[in-house]
Design goal:
There is one protein chain. By secondary structure, this protein is α/β, with parallel strands linked by helices. Helices cover 30% and strands 27% of the residues. It has 6 helices and 13 strands. The protein has an 8-stranded parallel β-sheet. A 3-stranded antiparallel β-sheet has the order 4-6-5, with no helix packed on it. Strands 10-11 form a two-stranded antiparallel sheet. The longest helix is centred in the middle third of the chain and has 17 residues. The chain is globular.
Length: 231
């Protein structure tokens, strides 16, 4: 068992010395070149490449839906569109060839917005598992694909499990949402999977609340800010 901090989510650039304190680091692949990835891996850190599977931040493309994510501005996509699937798989292949040790799969919670995309999304996850080979694959949420999702990933992140960011700052979820999240957490598969909570907090009290609550459900807790700029 490594004595390193289990994981960090960092969407900035550089900071190789600080990142080397972690067992795994989720990074934006466009910010890191092969020599930097080689340096991290040589220091014992596994860099994981961020991939968005249902939202596109790029220029207009035939797979995009007219709707956009109100928080980040990206276009929602038709996940089953062959062009989108190849676009994501190409990103994954490029990341693995550059020296990433695995993949982080984001924007998987489509079951409430576009439920028809759940089957092609699961197929895309399975294809990404094949691209990653023996590398580490981490999924963010994706609860609408359980239990089948667990067959293709090594870990699951419950983003914003206890604490969230809002336009007015950081705060815990209301009691009813905390109860809903608890029910989901109780049903997460645990055999052989790493489980993480990624919570957002800006005070020691809120951070401690999130860590203690994650521990109750068998999850490692990561605390960050909205921009995921903390190392």
């Amino acid at each position: 068992m490594s004595d390193r901090i289990p994981i960090v989510f960092y969407y900035g650039t550089g900071r190789l010395a600080e990142l080397a304190a972690y067992q795994r680091a989720v990074l934006q692949p466009e910010f890191y070149r092969p020599p930097e990835l080689q340096s991290l891996r040589g220091a014992g850190t596994e860099p994981l490449a961020y991939l968005s599977l249902s939202e596109d931040q790029g220029p207009p493309a035939p797979w995009q839906r007219p709707q956009r994510n109100p928080d980040w501005g990206g276009a929602f996509v038709h996940v089953g569109h062959p062009g989108w699937q190849e676009h994501v798989l190409r990103q994954a292949r490029d990341a693995m060839n550059a020296g990433f040790a695995g993949l982080f799969l984001d924007t998987l919670n489509v079951e409430l917005t576009f439920p028809e995309d759940v089957p092609p999304l699961l197929g895309l996850v399975a294809a990404l598992r094949r691209v990653a080979g023996s590398g580490y694959v981490l999924a963010n949420r994706g609860f609408g694909m359980l239990p089948h999702l667990a067959e293709h990933v090594d870990g699951i992140v419950f983003e914003s499990f206890s604490a969230r960011w809002t336009d007015d700052g950081y705060e815990p979820w209301p009691a009813d949402v905390l109860e809903d999240h608890a029910r989901v957490a109780e049903g997460l598969p645990r055999d052989g999977l790493d489980l993480y909570a990624l919570d957002y907090a800006d005070t020691p009290g809120l951070a401690d609340f999130a860590r203690r609550r994650a521990e109750l459900f068998g999850m490692e807790c990561v605390i960050s800010d909205r921009a995921l700029s903390l190392v």
